[in-house]
Structure prediction request, 170 residues.
Amino acid sequence: TTRVRRMVAPMPDDGELLEAWRNGDEAAGRALFERHFDAIFRFFRAKLPEAAEDLTHQTFLGCVRGKDRFRGDASFRSFLFAIARNQLSKHWRSRSRDRLDLQTISVFDLDPSPSAALARDQDQHKLLLALRRIPLDSQVALELHYWESMTAAEIGAVLDVPLGTAKTRL
Prediction:
């Protein structure tokens, strides 16, 4: 018997998918969204469970609008999380008359009632409470580092801060 070897094409990386999407390949755009949807939803669910779906949707709309402006200075993933952070900021600012400083204000300060739905067990609940008490930009930095495995450089791109500042926040 003769064995036939199938060559499986490697999955395109984010840059290749983005380029194809920019050139009109809608399937490439859908593939990017599918690849990053869970991480973006998780990002919002940890902070605003009741608005996570809407903010995730707004983030991907922002990506659609900004895909041609993305220069590639950072990873596409960093670009997407930067849009998510901006959506989060916009959401909190829309709920407050005062100017919010995300480097000093925490989710606990903004919404002091943590969601019990997110706390599956006592340790997770304690972690959620602790994360909600630290400044939002620090919370974002920690989540991106530990849950999304992003480097300090990528986190700096998301937060729009220098590498040293991102490392300090971590």
The radius of gyration is 18 Å. The chain is about 60% helix and 0% strand. Confidence is low (pLDDT under 50) at residues 112-120.
